[in-house]
Design goal:
17 helices, alpha/beta
Amino acid sequence: MLKDPKILILTANYGNGHIQVAKTLEQSLHKMGINNVKVSDLISESHPIMAEITRYLYLKSFSIGKQFYRLFYYSVDKMSNKRIMNLYLKLGHRKLNQLVREINPDIIINTFPISVVPEYRTRTGVFIPTFNVLTDFCLHRVWVHKNIDKYYVSCDDVKEKLTMLNIHPALVKVTGIPIRPQFEEKMETVDLYKKYNLDPNKKTLLIATGAHGVLKNVKDLCESFFTRDDMQIVVVCGNNQSLKDELEPLQYIHPDRIKVFGYVERIDELFRICSCMITKPGGITLSEAAALKVPLILYKPVPGQERENADLFAAKGAAVVINKLEKVQETVNDLFNHPEKMEKMKMSIAELYRPNAADTILQDILNEAEMLLDSSLKGSVNY
């Protein structure tokens, strides 16, 4: 294994997942005694104004811009080998060159498909072992490049899609997606009900709106369940203060039926005590739910990676996908009234969980990088 390697982790702040995976990998490296680690949001650091605009458009895609995002996502997927991609292939080159000169990394890890990174090898002739850690249960072609030395993916389905694009199977490792370590801890749940002021004798429906609180129709969802005396609702609004403000009057009127929170640092604790969860199908959220065997209702997935994530989980029997508000209450009631269906979903989602993904990925990267660097010194690596 490389001695005291210098590692550059590149990511981007579109949604919370890419950044979160980068931080999880960084923390795991520190636990391994590797401290020379730099995490960079390359696009924001290279083009801050453009990054701010595109992040705004990305968040709008969850509401008014769904069809625009669908067109963008699938058009880029099809145009990956055309001239229009040349701009994206150059995006961030100057900043990346600066980072490489400052850090002189032995390894580069991508948690976002930044094509300038593998292109750097072609443009400069500088060989740095480069690895992609995919953060969804689907594949977009922008992740694929001849200069990526190995891919780490969520499931066998993604590996199969990569091999269909002529990536050698030996260059793809199914590891799962890195998740925060607290989701993999063993924990007693008795005291958690008291901590969150919940009744352990009631069924608990968790509505997780995402880090940016982008889940729609949340107030209507909550009100639709007030007819059940055996249910309590927990809503996590993330950083969406306006949503929290909208829901807090419901909590005031129905204190025994609904609890409203903003951002919750230890949201794994709520995952552990909920009966099922309504949420958006981001790759990280799905992986965290799989780790704790939480039955999922995936509500109104946005076309693109969300929809593809949702379709895979539904096909595996690990989730129910719903696009109409009126179907949510019916589905939740059906699950709560038929515990055997919930148990079957728990078993199905558990099969998608791969433990200790971060450690598995990093151990493999360190081994692969050492072999690649040895080969490059012997002149057997093709640039």
